[in-house]
Fold these 4 entries.
Entry 1:
Amino acid sequence: MTADRGKRWRVVHHVVGALLVFAWIVAAAFQVRSTGPEYGFDAENVPPPATDAAARSYGIYYQDRKIGFSESWREELAGGGARFFDRVYWQFKAQRSVQRLAMESETDVDQRWQLVSFATRIDAGLAKISARAVVRGETLEVELTTAGQTRRESYPLAGPVLVPALLRSYVAARDPAPGSALRLDVYNPLLRGAEPIEVLVEERTADGWRIAEIMRGSIKTTAWIDRSGTTLREESFMGFRMESEPREQAMALPEDAESIPDLVFAAAVPVDGDIDDPQRVRRLVLRLSGTDLSSFAALDGGRQTRRGGDVTVEAPPYPDRAPYLLPLDLAGASAELIEALQPEALVQADDPKIVRLATRVVGAERDPARAAARLSEWVHSRLRKESSVGVPSAVEVLAVMAGDCNEHTVLFTALARAIGVPTRMAAGIVYADPEGSGAAMYYHAWPEVWLGSWVAIDPTFGQLPADATHVRFILGGLERQVDILRLIGTLRVSVRQLERDDGRAARRHPGAATAPAGEEEGP
């Protein structure tokens, strides 16, 4: 299968949109909540202001352009503890399509500021997800609802839980001295466990402190907080910032669509060198620079090889047959393959509708290579190519039958796992040339299937296999893909060598001969 130029660029996006949403969820401890129709709080309608007079309002900006607002307030609970409310509304462009996103949460904590329960909601137009959770002893019980279906799961807790939304209040209560550092284990519900966040106290201000919060080693947020831990100002990745403003000012959003920034194009990775006919590229050598590559283990393995800052991607022909038949014999399967068959909270491979559809599409076919090809063609041809932000869910995608690379990937993964084909999700960059925006590498997601070895395919583009311009940085879902945010604004790419499947000779980029591919030290 191949993809024409127009179709390719229209759908090569929204890893960025989804990851921005995910990062905000992690930072604010949102999961997703349905508060009922009294608020009318959804992506297509700007919500009314909070009814609580003590609510603090914020304007949200990308660089100097307003893209949304946030507000938060708290109530004291009888018997001690408190309830925190948060609401966020965004509007931005993703490949010229205006996207709107509404999020809100309600979090209860006890007298020690430890988590008791939370209930939250995300409405991103095509993607609507809600969840509730409560701590019972040493267990967190979660209900996740999407497409009208509720999934219940329980996760063990190693100890009392500090949630991200209360981190700044916790820091302020310690009255930290400038220069001090704290390493806090903060519960991330999307990871079902604690995640360390380093807090550096950079300065004592007239109102309180300026602190830096560092997640996953390099994803940094700078915040100005008062003596109660309330946020006054915040600056984060890609030039996002949040300013405390009067409510009327905070909620005033631009009406001119032309003034709304396009975050997908803003996050594009510059490329030094041309890659014409990208769908026909079968071997590509790229030099990656501007960022530390050492923590991206998925750059090396399978069809990719990394030596220093050079990455070679090879896309051999898609196999006619696999060396096993369905169902896969799990008795001799590795832990990696068993994991790649499991249902997940948002990859519901055991959902009856998913199982019935996968079985119908595949029919009597027992060869996994041919079965995966049928599923890929079905997903590619049936899903409408539409912009979407938020956290994709396979059953939600099946209900709306639309989306971009995230939706194509999560639905294919659920369908393939449902019939016993080990499948994992990958994310990285891919080459595209959007009209009016210039050629670049764009952040993208696609699946890999086990056919005796891991084979990358792309149901969004309709490719078997995915061409060699697909450069994998991450393996796993959004909880792992959020690390891609560390690359935005820093990663640079230059073409060293490429080969196509039409027999044309390899082409070297000017300057490639100065050092053999991969001989340089480090990125």
Entry 2:
Amino acid sequence: MKRSSIRKKVITVLLTASLTGSLAQAATRTFQQEFNGYTGTQDTELRGAAATTAQGAAVGITVDQSDGGGISHGLIRFDNIFGPGADQIPLGETIVSATLYFYSYVNNAQSANASELHRMLQDWSEADATWSGSFGGDGVQTDDTEAVATPDATFTPNFVNPAGNVANTRTVTLDVTASVQAWSAGAPNYGWAIIPLGTDGYRIDSSEVTASLTNRPLLVVNFGAAEPILITTQPADLTVEERQNAAFSVGVTGTRPVYQWFRGAAMILDATNSSFTLSNALPADSGATFHVEIRGEADPVNPVISRDALLTVNPDVIAPKFVTAASLTNAAVIDLTFSEGVNFYGPEGNVDDNLNWVLRDSHGVEVGVLSVVSNSQTSISLQTDALLPYETYLAENTITIQDLAVTPNVLPAASQVPVARFQWPNVSGLSQTFRYNDTGESNLAPAWITVGFDDSAWKQGFGLFDGKLGADTYTTNELNEITTNTALCRATVSSIPVATCLQIYRNITTSSTTVPAAQRPDRIITAYFRTHFNFSGETNGAYLRLVSVLDDSAIYYLNGAEIIRLGVNAGTPTYLTFANRTIGDGNYETNYVFVGPNLLQGDNVLAAEVHQVNNTSSDMTFGVEVAPFRIDAPPGVPSASFGPTGEVIISWAGPGVLVESDTVNGTYTDVAGNPASPYQPTPTPGQSKFYRLKK
């Protein structure tokens, strides 16, 4: 409780007592140096390292078993708190409660060691109390002579370091009802000794502190007639899901209530607060009843008994699911979370066994999972081979995974979850429109790779491009050159649809004869391709992702500069340069390159020249996907969770626009209405949706 709140409450009670003209009812008094005219606080430090020096004027009290080479004890007292005055406590009153507040704002005021508060039995004054000059010359002894042996309170002030900032003031709250009751009954009021139990010192702001007057020690005393216990809020029946906590509570009024909870007729050990929580409720707990008995100072013998609250536990019948998988800060670590706790040691194998997990890239190629680290019952980390920063991946379990229900529910084997990666969508796909030149008759002008080159006279088509010679019967001329061929290209290549047919031979129309395939000297060795794409992102630190489908090889250029070559020897190529590799049928192959200043904001031109391995090759294939990407931090990391009724909730922090797709590698579009976090989607039953955040 903040001190301002305490004072407000105290002042209100005092006004009420004054208006009624009676102190026989419950009342409150507050004592703090220079508050409401009170000046009776004395506090000091008995410092062994300065054994003959009085510390009463210091702005702090340090208690420590090793302070500059000696032990330090603290002393504090509130004089003149009893008497007939309007701001005093009448002697003989029943003390309902008394609370002592210590405040600390200086650097390193906190302590990991405990301290004790003992009621003093010998008189002292802050003006002259010292380590060697008072109490026998060895500080305060808790021997029932100098101070009461049994402490009023034992406490550990292990709070956050206030670091010398008054705004960060930390508070220690101590129940001192027993001492104040003893003084009310006639025992002399000599205050308390603060005794350290360790060598990590604790520092208290004293009554002399000036940085903030409200940091001075505060004593709040409630006294008067004890009020009987009255239940104002009965414990309610609860219905919880299996393995959830069931929290029962009771509301009461009355003086110094003491609680004891029961399950049925059986007392629950250590359940002595106004609330009781049954952790990890199971179906076997369903039907149990819980009640609490409360005794108070007005009648400490006969308890007030609450109603029986019925607990209902719904069995868990929902299978665990993947919630998220993300590779955020380490390209070789994927953090994967489940919707609920899972059994790491199931009947088919261990969840933390790397042999029970696979990782697949966007083309179905497996990436090794080297080890699995269990972070919690709902989280694991997959340690993998280094992941390519531009690629997308799916994590997949190869065994069934059970939850922790008494009757386990199962996440089936081969379930998949997309790994959250942070990249821009493709700016060019396999079906991108290209201008192309497949005449293959001479070298092109060097400017053909630049942004400004006029390619309007070239043919136009879209990927996948393919050319394939058909049967071994061709019409040729007297020079053994093919003049006609009816089989130009295929419908698919490696199950990828072909959209545009390429010419891969010179079409010469003169007299003809039939020649075998091995004698065809007129293949087109090189074809040329150009396409434009627009990029609106930040180019500094960007990479370019290329996924090719080639037969046989290619050199790629971005805005006039070569960025990568696949299967072509070094040097300046010509239209007759052969590839240095041969491909059976083209299929996906992935490469990437740092493009730096070659990537432009706005219009960009990607150019490629595709080369055959020899002049008898029967096919040529070309297609490419292009996606810029970055490996810096995303604008915000979206996370998914499940609400209390199973609804999906997507949350993120920071700026960004939420985008969605029906497939993990599909086209992502802005979510309608540009929703803010948190967002609750409403997918059609059986439908999958994938979400990302874009800048």
Entry 3:
Amino acid sequence: MSYVRKLGASALVIAAAFAVAFAVLVSSPTQTVEAAVHDGPDVSEGDNTALTGADLTKNNGDTVYISNAAASDAVYVTFTIQTVEAASASFTHASASDDGQSITCNAGGACDADPTDTGSATVALKIDDDSGAGAIFVRQATVAATPVEALDTITVVVAQVPTRLTAKPVDASINSGQGAADPGTTYLDIRLLDANNKGIADTAITIVSTRALLSRPADVDGVSPLVRTFNTEEVTVGSIADGTAAALAGTATTSEDARADDETNPDVDTAGWVRVAVTGGGAPGVSTITVTAGELSTTTEVVLHGGAKNLAAEAEQSAIELNGMTNIVVTVTDSGGNPVKDARVSIKGKGGIVPPAQGDTAVAAVVNVNKDGGTIGALTDKGDIPACGDVAEVEADDTTTPPTVGVAESTGTNDAGQCVVKVTATDNTGTDNDAARGTHTITLVSGSSGVAPRGVDEVVVEIQVGGAPASIESDAPERIDPSDELTVNVTVLDDEGVRVGAVFVEVIKTDGPGAIIADTQAKTSDGRASFTYLASSRPDVAEFLVRTYNANADGTRGSTVTAKLPIIVEIAEEVVEPEPVVEEEPVVEEEPEPVVEEAPSLSIPSADLGLVLGVFSGGTVDELKAAVAAVCANDGVVIWSTPGSGGPVSMSPAAPDVINAGFGRAYPDGLPSPTALQIVDCGGAPEAMDGMEETGNGMEETGNGGEENGG
């Protein structure tokens, strides 16, 4: 069957994006015998009679069938839709016109949704999936000279849309039934809700478990766990079908709201609930349970534990004062590390509590007091832990004198495998049997007999008992920067310097700006506490006072201050001291040793020869004269040289300057180093022979050259 959708229907629905489901109430105040509304197309069948009353309530997306008995093969009927507010619908047949808002059909014709009933024309009307609240009118008129009309009025109301699915086990841990143990059973409570947290009724739910078995809850002492009371409103919630064997999967239908039958408390919503029994299947482990409703899905876990195998324990306060109290939190797990529920723990029968020294009075330890924080009834508050032994429930009664305080029942460890042992350091005023100061050792075993069962190790916890608070120490600095955030840790000590735990403590800002933004806890933890202070943005001084108090007999804070500590913190920028200036000793510069320049020299192989070749080390003409005088004894010695730019020139040191003028002009800037010279008539000079011996090798080489030149 084709479907023609009315254009623009979604524009009328404000919440169309959320795919809201709608119910449709169909009524026919002006309906004639010719017109009727049905659930199915076979209007002639006895089980598809015309709808009336509450049966006319439908959901969006449903299809209803409008039949008109005035039609025949020769008589046609025109069906026309009109809507108000946000309601919308369309005729589904392809021959519908005006975007599915009008259709004309005869009995047995192509558009007849029930061709077997030749005495009427039936058309299918689809309420749009995104229809909003409003009204739909279906007008029917025969195509004749004198039309016969009928009108069906369809009222559309907004229905719920599933948006949230929750699943929570009553107990998060049950016995797996391993070996000879009886399998534990708990309940899984499921609820389907809309965007307004209202329960959604009559909706299919699928539940699948990986390990635990699912079944319909059995009656307990003749009372069905499926009959539940919500704020005085009683309702039977949905569950897996009765008689179904325990299995890993099942289906259920959410509960109807009790308000349908009982309007005495209309504000209580009891729709959308399902409860399923969850039972251990024999194998320890964690069972993951997946719950699905349409496109919504959620998971939860139930621990299936074996027998107790391991014990672990830790004191909430390992250091307490005389007359102080603490709890030892014990955790019991099986061989796989799964927490064991309803396990008992007791103090070892022999040597279970050992005081600091022989003859000392030991602390008292009991296993029949819940850590309940004063809560009356079940242990449901955060931090509540059951006692490690059995505790009978006590009903609270305000009419008694004094009023009876309610006590929650305890049958051992909770879902997390935890229970508590209460330890008290008794302070018997005026007697000598106070709990001794020092370290007390407490040994715990699994079970309630005080004897450790085979295969389960015992666990030892130490509790240190100190005297009353005598002093307080802190790690507060003397100074902090403006706007700094400062956390101050304080330690409470007795007169022997032993930390004192579980002592009432407070801190007061007695002066200065800023504020304490995180106060101390009510009591010290192992003798320690802390607070956080936010400094002002301007320089100043902040003053605090830390005080400890005694405890009253009922455990509340007393009025006696047992120790106190003032704390003063300066708020200022850090002053950075300049580094001291170290004067360096003056550096005395050492005078450089004078450079003794060697005078220009003249080297010759022998002063006795008439003509020799010498080498001048370079210098002025006057320096050459001095060098010649140093090696030659003959005043008539003559020096010949050949400059690179002209012919030979000569100089006689003893001759007048005019004789030597040509030599001077040849070397206006002096002679380069080295310069070869021819020396004539040098003559012997004993004082010059020592110098000639030092340079003899070099002169011999040049002498050879001179001989070659002379030749």
Entry 4:
Amino acid sequence: MFSAACISRMKTGADVLRQVERLLQSGQHEQAAASLDKHFPEDLPDNERPPRADLLRGWLLLARKDESGVLALFAAVERDPSLLGLAAQRVEDWLDGPGKAHDTMLLRHELTRMHALHQAAGRERAEVNGDEDYRAPADELAEAVEQALAPWRDDIRAAWLAERRCARAPRWRHLELLLELKPRQWHFRPDARDRLQRYCQRIEQAIPLCGGSIAVRAHPLATLPAHVRNMRKRAHPLFDTAGAEMFPSANNLNQSLKRPKNTRNDKKKSAILATLSSPLRRHRTLLASSAAATMLLLPMWVGWNMMTNHETRQRVASLEQRHTATLARKYWRREEAAGLFSPGKTVHAFLAALRARDNHPRLPLFTADSYRPGVGLRLAGDELHTLWSIWHGCGAFQTHVEGSRAVVRWPLTQSHCLPLLLRREQGRWRIAWTDMRNTLAINANGRWSFAHAGEQLPHAWLFAFPELFPVPDATSPDLKTSNAAAPTVQDTAGMRKTSRTRHIPAPTPLAQAVKPSMNTSQQGT
């Protein structure tokens, strides 16, 4: 990635790549294609063609409505993971425009993962604390960076270059450049930090890199002492500054100027010291005995504390291990582990929480409006297990999806199996308990039906019940009349109407306690 041939080509091609990117942004696709074919042809070997050229070529293909550009973008990311964010953004723009027919949930999930990985890796490379893992870079790379720093050689006193190993996206090659600048134009200025930041940005743009990234940090205004010591130990020095002192000692600052010895009031100081030391001389035996007792008791006290601290550490470690095991079992408390990217996985996570009798008040399984105060219902452990046994006994379920809504339901013959209504929020499917409360109802026998039977039904969820509510003809002139004439659940399924039908309980059954006198049909909602 940092080969000599690629770096030499980058010296002359950085301006070309920036020009091609500007042409693509302005919509001049033909000029951009001609420039790419001239300076970075496709038959050029990979070690001489920068990954950013492949990224721009994939961008150009997508602009021409060619779906093979997605493969070119992913190939560029494979060569240089630092392009994760740009590639994901280009694919998202294409899916929102000409590539809408190729938009799938799996592809959107992969783009979301690429964005998250790019942000996490960028934060890791931007932060330093002195514990980073550095290694010396290749010789040709050090020479290229040293040549790029030649215009600023008069401002630089010492420089160190290192390659950093990172935990996030380890194939993303990252360089750290530490500069000790001469303080003539930085000190005693109110805008010193802003000027220094712009100065480092210009240096970053001037350094040729074939893939990867570089961070330029300047001492002493933008560094930490621990980071400076770590760089001096492991980094490669530039400009023959191996013996330069980042922190000069006091003896090297100015040997000619010495502070004169102060001889005033020496007699007064001697008298004060004699007054303070006279009690110590009088109680010399008592002090010696105290010191001997302290020397004998101190090891015993240290041993006792070490023993008690060891037992305490063992108890704390045991508690932490039990807490970690509990969180591992309750995977549904975390969105990433629960995997709420499909309605079926959300329902499985919800049933797992019920089976474990988890009544955590803020589970990430419900929509945001399901946590409104005053409308929730909290269940005890036995009641949660009863809910799980009811839904678990229903067997396999069916999933119906329409846009951002989904319904998980069972056959109508199993009228005691309450369907679950879900909505997609922030890319994840969550149970819409408020919609269930306003849409469905349960009678005294524990059988469900649509609320407000005989009135206007909630047509937003009728797509999941085609056998009950046939979809009206879109060309019908009176769509309202056809909807009003749709049969109700009681008329079609033969369910007996009852005056004891009530709304489904509040949207958060795990947030409030339920009275023990409630029957099983009320718990099932």
